Every structure is written in C-alpha cells, then in structure tokens.
C-alpha cells in the first residue's frame, strides 16, 4: 500500500502557497510509494463530516506556482484545538478536538503531514507533534514574523506591492502638496512598512517596535513645507502605536477566530496630525489584502519551491516536529518549538533601522 502525505495550508493566505504545494507534489512523485492529499481549508478538511480531502497529483499542480491564493483553501479560524461549536442558546464556544483529529488521521492512513502556515498554524503543528503526530512545518506569512528563518515566503511579494503603492503615492503627494499616509499590514512587526519605506523613499516610517511621537512626525511635515518640498509620504504599519496609546484594532467576534483585528492606525494618525495643526492636506490609503493576493514574485516562487522540496525530504527523514527554514544560503530544519517561541520583530538598533535613519527617514521618535 502507498504511503499517504497530507498537505494543509492554514492561516491568512499568502503569495507562494501554491508554489510550495507544487514543489512537494513534484518531489514526492519521484518516490513511487507516496501519494499526496490536500486537506481543504486547513485542517477543517479532516475535522468536517464528511471529511474533505483532495488528491494532489503532478497533473493537478502543473503550473500553479504562478497563482496567488491556495488551491486547497485556508482558514484562520478554528482548528483541532479550538473548534467552534454553537450552544443551544445561540452563543459560541470552542472545543478541543485534537484526539478526534488524530483518530481521523489513522482512519485515513495518513503517514505524514506538511502544515504550511504562519505563527498560529505552527502552534497547531507543535501541539499535534506533542500528541505524536508525524508533522513537518513550512513557514508562511507576509508579516515575516516567524523566528529562526531569515524570511518567510510571501513577504517579498508583499513588500513589492507596498513599494509600488509608495511609488504611486509619492507622485500624487508631490502634485497636490499633501501628506499621504499608507497603512500596510504586518501584525505586530514593522517589516513590510520598513522595507517599503526604504525602497519607496518615504519621509516617515512608523512601526510597532518604535512608538511614535506625533509632534516629531509633525516636525518632519513642517520641515518639508518650510524647505519648499511641500509634501510628505508616511508609511505606517497596522500595529504602530503612539507613545501614549495602544494598537488600533476592532473586536472580532467570529467564533474560533483571533479576538482582535488590527486596522485603523493610518486613519488615527491622520486625525492626530490634523489635531496637532498639520499645515497641508492629508489623505490616507489602506493597502489591506492587496498585499496578500495575486502572483508571487520570482524570489517567493524560488523560496517556496526550496521549502517544498526540503519539506518532503524531511518527511523521508522522519524529522517530525521540525520546520524548514531559510538561513542564507541554506535551507535547514529547525524545531517548530524554536520558531514559535517569540515573534521575529524589527530590531530598533539593527541595520535596517540604521539605514532608514541614515537616509533621513524619521521613525517618529
Ligand atoms: O498575518 C497576516 C495578516 O495579513 C496580517 O498582516 C493581518 O493583520 C491579518 O493577517 C489580517 O487577517 P484577516 O485575513 O483576518 O483580515
């Protein structure tokens, strides 16, 4: 009987997911005793009744490395440890279905799992590994906030999208003599904002790792008005905070989902700048999910392909509980537990920040 590998993509989608799936399937097809299945919508495909699994053959994945999204679907809600159930009064709770999940794997004769996902998904991988599950992780997220890997795939594409937005906003800011604020994603990390601000040449970049003083931001705008440039571009990460405030978010009451939804930092900054007496007009752009959709750039296609091939090789080596990681120039295996121990955040004294300051970009401090 053939061995069965199950692939799942979990959490927010990200450019390059399909390239990982294709690479795993292509590499697995060289071993004639393996077949590959996909679990639809992360691990929901295993936990639903009836189960929802699809066969992933080389023909099925041909050419998908250029496509955005994931052909097997994803979700950032629920999962084996927090499955949402509705009570008779209409309210929602979550239950631990991890034992049921393991039984279902046995029923399906699954010999190995490759779980492609970010921080939340790799926490699930670690929990399942501790229950004896033969699982390998692949780090995915546009936020680049997983530790122990130089980059996650999807991040560079998100930076390209954000940089393209800065480039466009610079020309309209200059034409209209305005402050243009661009809010980008990144959760608790400022990687996308900082990279896009440097690549696009913004005047100000505000990130969660360095709380900003609105008066310092205003000072930059005033200087730009006084020196005749007359406009300014600000990139703000969704998790950025003023020195005297917290993150801007809305409550998320979707059952089994993350409790908060970051967003609103750009609008809040605009309000703060107006109140502080900004001398020119302000407009805001929220880049949102444009950063997550669409085709991966060449770097992410290559990184995703390297991750996929390596992940299958870790399956052959039975390196359960490990995640593939990019440590330039190598693709290595690291314990999932290490990768999720802490967020990979921007170092306020690191080279990227020094570069930004050297270029005259204000971090609002
Ligand atoms: O983690 C990826 C990410 O895109 C974050 O940058 C963002 O805060 C979050 O997901 C948005 O999630 P949702 O898909 O729920 O809008």
Short description:
The protein has helices at 17-28, 44-47, 58-61, 98-107, 119-130, 155-176, 191-200, 214-226, 265-275, 298-317, 336-339, 351-358, and strands at 3-9, 34-39, 53-55, 83-86, 92-95, 112-117, 135-139, 179-184, 204-206, 232-237, 249-251, 260-262, 282-286, 322-327, 330-335. By secondary structure, the protein is of the alpha/beta class. Helix 1 packs across helix 10 (298-317), helix 6 crosses helix 7 and helix 7 (191-200) runs parallel beside helix 12.
Characterization of this structure:
By secondary structure, this protein is an alpha/beta fold. The chain folds into 2 domains: 3-153 and 296-328, Rossmann fold; 156-292 and 347-358, Rossmann fold (3-Layer(aba) Sandwich). The protein has helices at residues 17-28, 44-47, 58-61, 98-107, 119-130, 155-176, 191-200, 214-226, 265-275, 298-317, 336-339, 351-358, and strands at residues 3-9, 34-39, 53-55, 83-86, 92-95, 112-117, 135-139, 179-184, 204-206, 232-237, 249-251, 260-262, 282-286, 322-327, 330-335. Strands 3-2-1-6-7-14-15 form a 7-stranded mixed β-sheet, with helices on both faces. Helix 1 (17-28) crosses helix 10, helix 6 packs across helix 7 and helix 7 (191-200) packs parallel to helix 12 (351-358). The longest helix has 22 residues, at 155-176. It binds 6-O-phosphono-beta-D-fructofuranose (F6P). 6-O-phosphono-beta-D-fructofuranose (F6P) binds at residues 12, 76, 118, 141-143, 185-187, 238, 262, 292.
């Amino acid at each position: 009987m053939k061995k069965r590998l199950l692939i799942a993509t979990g959490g927010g989608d990200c450019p390059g997911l399909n390239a990982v799936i294709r690479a795993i399937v292509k590499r697995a097809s060289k071993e004639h005793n393996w077949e590959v299945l996909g679990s639809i919508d992360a691990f929901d495909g295993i936990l639903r009744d009836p189960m929802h699994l699809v066969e992933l053959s080389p023909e099925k994945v041909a050419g998908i490395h250029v496509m955005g999204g994931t052909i097997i679907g994803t979700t950032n809600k629920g999962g084996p440890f927090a499955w949402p159930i509705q009570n008779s009064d209409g309210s929602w709770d979550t239950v631990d279905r991890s034992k049921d999940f393991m039984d279902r794997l046995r029923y399906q004769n699954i010999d190995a799992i490759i779980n492609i996902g970010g921080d939340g998904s790799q926490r699930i991988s670690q929990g399942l590994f501790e229950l004896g599950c033969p699982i390998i992780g692949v780090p995915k997220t546009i936020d680049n906030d997983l530790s122990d890997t130089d980059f996650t795939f999807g991040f560079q594409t998100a930076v390209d999208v954000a940089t393209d937005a800065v480039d466009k906003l610079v020309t309209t800011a200059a034409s209209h003599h305005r402050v243009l604020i661009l809010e980008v994603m990144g959760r608790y990390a400022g990687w996308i904002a900082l990279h896009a601000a440097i690549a696009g040449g913004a005047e100000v970049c505000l990130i969660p790792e360095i709380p900003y003083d609105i008066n310092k931001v205003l000072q930059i705008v005033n200087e730009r008005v006084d020196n005749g440039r007359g406009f300014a571009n600000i990139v703000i990460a969704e998790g950025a905070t003023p020195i005297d405030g917290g993150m801007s978010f809305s409550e998320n009451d979707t059952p089994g989902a993350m409790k908060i939804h970051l967003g609103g930092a750009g609008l809040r900054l605009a309000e703060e700048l107006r109140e502080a007496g900004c001398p020119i007009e302000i407009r805001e752009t929220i880049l949102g999910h444009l950063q997550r959709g669409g085709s991966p750039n060449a770097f992410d296609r290559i990184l995703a392909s390297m991750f996929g091939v390596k992940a299958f090789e870790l399956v052959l080596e039975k390196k359960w509980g490990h995640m593939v990681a990019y440590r330039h120039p190598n693709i290595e295996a690291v314990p999932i537990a290490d990768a999720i121990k802490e967020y990979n955040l921007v170092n306020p004294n690191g080279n990227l920040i020094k570069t930004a300051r050297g270029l005259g970009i204000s971090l609002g401090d």
